[in-house]
Specification:
With about 70 residues, the chain is an all-alpha fold. It has two helices and no strands.
Length: about 70
């Protein structure tokens, strides 16, 4: 496995975990035990996943340019 492949896998795994965290925060917020911090967690996780997706896109473009 090349370093590029590992990096791509790691970024995709991080996006997946961030989205899972967002779902957890949203579901918990809607439950009886929910608080505003669960909503903040969900919004933060969605923001993180979005930023990681942008980073993934830029990483793919940049590594394609340099021939990896």
């Amino acid at each position: 496995m090349s370093l590029r492949s590992f990096h791509l896998f790691f970024i995709v795994a991080s996006i997946t975990i961030s989205l899972m965290m967002a779902v957890w925060g949203g579901v918990t917020y809607e439950s009886v035990r929910g608080s505003v911090w669960h909503l903040v967690t969900a919004l933060g996780a969605v923001t993180t996943a979005g930023l990681l997706a942008l980073y993934l896109n830029n990483f793919i473009k940049k590594t394609k340019e340099i021939g990896y």
